[in-house]
Amino acid sequence: MAEVISRDSSLYARYLIGKARHLMSRARQKELTPSHISPRQANTLIVLYNLGRKATLADLARDTDRRINTLSIQMSRLEHDGLVKKVRETPKSTLLSFELTEQGLKTYDKIKNIRSVKSIMSVLSEQERQQLILILEKIVTKAAKYKNRSNQSV
After folding, report:
1. Which of 54, 72, 103, 132 has its C-alpha lying 20 to 30 A from 19's C-alpha?
2. Contacts of 71 (CB under 8 A, 6+ apart)
3. In sequence order, what are the residues at sequence separation of 6 or more whose Cβ sits closer than 8 angstroms to the Cβ of residue 31?
């Protein structure tokens, strides 16, 4: 089979990162299917739980790296499914926050121990896993500089 992307290129590294992410997401999605929840929804529930309090869309956007409008739609779906509820600080307040419902907490308990990703990552030693984390953090930090820029060199 012909080499489509040179193994020496940055594009090949990006391709492998994307492929690993895709395959791990599919494995996680398959494991979440019985809970009738998507990986993104599961991630949002985990973040909401870990915040340990009512969370605003801005809090969730910061911790999930999603845009507020995207989260707004997702939170509406989670609310419709009975997993979260909107809370207003006062009846006339425009500030909305969200918290897990009883059903949301039960769903969180089911999904918090998803084993597929841990199993996939088990091919790495602890040292390799820590190295991978450091390398990916460097890439994320550099890539984040491009997030709000258009056609500017960084």
Report:
1. 72
2. 44, 57, 60, 61, 64
3. 114, 115, 116
